[in-house]
Amino acid sequence: AQKITQTQPGMFVQEKEAVTLDCTYDTSDPSYGLFWYKQPSSGEMIFLIYQGSYDQQNATEGRYSLNFQKARKSANLVISASQLGDSAMYFCAMRELNTGGFKTIFGAGTRLFVKA
Amino acid sequence: EAGVVQSPRYKIIEKKQPVAFWCNPISGHNTLYWYLQNLGQGPELLIRYENEEAVDDSQLPKDRFSAERLKGVDSTLKIQPAELGDSAVYLCASSLRRGADTQYFGPGTRLTVL
Questions:
Q1: Residue A43 DSSP SS3
Q2: With 90 as the cut, is the pLDDT of residue A80 above it?
Q3: Which has the closest alpha carbon to B65: B50, B44, B51?
Q4: Using a CB-CB distance cutoff of 8 angstroms, which residues of chain B are in contact with residue A95?
Q5: What rounded mean pLDDT belongs to chain A?
Q6: From A32, which residue of chain B is nearest by alpha-carbon distance?
Q7: B31 → chain A, closest CA residue
Q8: Residue A48 near residue A59, CB atoms below 8 Å
Q9: How many CB atoms lie within 10 A of CB B28?
Q10: Residues of A whose CB is below 8 A from B98
């Protein structure tokens, strides 16, 4: 069965510094996708970055990068040069493409606080 | 391009009352999802539509919840009767297709049942 684990309930980072949000997953499906979403206090889930299980390189989108370590089954999100507007909940998600019926499961989230 | 639209944004009702949520997905997106998000948790899928067909409703409590997507575009999620434990945020999302396609979420409806 697919599973997503985010072990950090809350994280603090100083403005302009980099921060890593942890995510580990469990699946027996060799074909899957990994997603990160940001949820500010307004409630909307904002898509940040995607990594496919067969992608050879780590995904990057602006200040966001995904540190994909397939053997360890980890997909950590790295935010560089943190900004005050980065303060939000961050969710890691996974979708199995062969066995999961395209169902996406989400982790419990990590709340990030950016300090001025 | 307009994003996923949901209404209402907030709803307060008394228990045993009915309630309905509406979602209009991004234009051209064939797949539509309804999620339930409890406080401090990640979203959990309630139902997924491919066009007008509900292809995954295994997590939908069918005794009180119902959903429809009659013309394969907008969708309505209904609860009747509502219970105290239904208080949560109900999120709608859409994607171009199923599979690896990214899901785009609406702002959600925050339901409070008194």
A1: coil
A2: yes
A3: B44
A4: 99-100
A5: 93
A6: B100
A7: A102
A8: no
A9: 9
A10: 102
Does A42 contact B at CB distance below 8 Å? Answer: yes
Around A84, how many Cα atoms within 13 Å sit in the side-chain half-sphere? 2
Give the one of B44, B91, B99 whose C-beta lies nearest to A45's C-beta: B91
Query: From CA B48, how far away is CA B59, in angstroms rounded?
Result: 10
Q: How are beta strands A60-61 and A64-69 bridged, if at all?
A: antiparallel
Query: Residue A36: closest CA among chain B residues belongs to which residue?
Result: B102
State residue B72's pLDDT score: 84
Q: Is A99's pLDDT higher than 80? A: no
For residue B65, give the nearest of B98, B20, B97 by alpha carbon.
B20
* CA distances, B2 to each of A13, A55, B11, B25, B28 (Å): 33, 30, 23, 9, 11
What pLDDT was estimated at residue B100?
Answer: 62
Q: Three-class SS of residue B85?
A: helix
